[in-house]
Amino acid sequence: MSSPVGSLAGVGYREFASPTTLSDLVECAWVTHGPPAPVRVLPDGCMDLIRMDGRIIVAGPDTTAATSVRGTEPVLGLRFRPGVLPRLLGMPADRLRNQRVPLAEVRPGTGQSRSLVELAVRLASDDPRAETAPWPLPLLRRVTGQLAAGSTVDQVAAEMGWSRRTVSSSRRRPSSFPAPTGSMCCS
User: Fold this and answer.
1) How far apart are the first and last CA of the chain?
2) What is the mean pLDDT of residues 13-25?
3) Domain locations along the chain
């Protein structure tokens, strides 16, 4: 999910640094508020956990602009680094592309957490599913951290002792990283 944009008076959107405990997994936290109204959401290819109207939903990677209806309460979100949320949820990113799905449908038994941070920490502590976890979590954190810091695929491959193809093919797999859309998360 990307930055909501609109011309309505009183609409607000702010991004915050990711929670310290999740900084290697989460790009940023964000909040939007304003009067109940449709809000246009621009695609960024990222995946988010969102608390909206008392529910937690998963926003899959968007490839096209979408309209989301904001309720009366502020909407809170955590935007994850590429490849992280599919691993934590045990569901390939391509199955969630351009969708907003209740967390209970994606990960039954997860329950409702009071905090998105608490939920993300709990998801990160669960055992991964092989089909959505090409690398162990510490390695995924390292790779996504390097890419987020501006390292090129070639630089990451050299540091990891891998071929460029290994990093690139893992980034192309829908279970690992969503396809780029031309914009960056939290830019």
Assistant:
1) 12
2) 88
3) 4-172
